[in-house]
Each structure stands twice: as structure tokens, then as C-alpha cells.
Specification:
Blueprint: H1 2-20, H2 22-37, H3 40-51, H4 55-82, H5 85-92, H6 97-133, H7 145-152, H8 164-189
Length: about 190
Amino acid sequence: MTTAVSFTLGGLLGLLSAVLGGWVDQALGRAVDVLMAIPPLIFALVLLSIVGASLINLVLIIAVLDSTRVYRVTRAVAMNVVVLDFVEAAKLQGEKIGWIMTREVLPNILPPLTAEFGLRFCFVFLTISALSFLGLGIQPPLADWGSMVKENATLINYGNVTPLLPAGAIALLTVSVNFVVDWFLHKTSGLKG
């Protein structure tokens, strides 16, 4: 859910910034710069301490913080497409901004955005696990890998590897998601082999 919200917000603003340019691009760029200047984990800790560590707050805060990275990637790849002739032709035909964004630019930037989606998905899991380990992530009675590591951390002193199991699950999920994203990119690229 968090990754979907961050991609919707960051992707939409990144596309809008690239297509409109000018003062819109400058205003959005500076707002994103301000948010990116603060370390995301610390910013999330502060915000969750203020508004409370509910599941909805967790999703929204991480999504907004993650959307800044999505905005940067989307804007960067869209800027290369916006200057091409077919986009200029669509503008000259009088196509609306929504049409240009969804029909002209977006289909041409999907591969890098798909790869970024896989990375962001994994980073969201790591962020939520880190926040849960620190006590401000997903709250009991809901289960989370970060809180499982925290609850069993003292067992490492006795040679018990139980805390490593949730950490291994996070690593396995990260590798699996990236394999799926790579497979999807390979299938959609039309390459053989």
C-alpha cells in the first residue's frame, strides 16, 4: 500500500513537473529538496512521535517521504521524453496535459519506473522494520519482522539464531521481489533468451 501511494503521488508530481516545466517544476523541485534534506528515518520517527504510530499514519508518512525519491526518478526520465518530437506534436495538436502525461510520456518511462518500484518496495519493508525495531512501527498485536527481531535480540547472547530468521525473511523478500521485477522487465522488453 505504501509503495503504491508513494508511486501515485511521486509519479504524478514528477510527470506534471516534467510536462509543465517553468515555475511548477521549480516549486515542486524545491519542496522535494526540503523533504529530501531531512534523513527519512529520523523524519519518520519525529512525525510518528507527534501523530501516533497507527498503521494508517505509518503508511502515509512513509509514502510521502518515499514519494520524493519517486518524484526525482520520474521527473528525470520524463524530462528526456518530453523534448521528443511526438510529445511536441501532441502539444501542438492541442492535447490536454493529462493526455500527454498518460499517453505520450508515461508509456515511454515505464521500464525505469518498474525497476524503481521494486527497489522502493524493498526499502519500504526495511523502513517499516527499522521503525518497528525502534518501537514506532507496526504495533502489537500485529506482527512485523522488525519487532520480531527486537523481541528476540537477547537470544543472540545465548547462541540462538532465532532473531536472524525475520532478518533472513526480509533479505529473502528483497531478493525475490527484485527477481520478479527483473523477470517482468525482461518479458516486457521483447528480448529473447
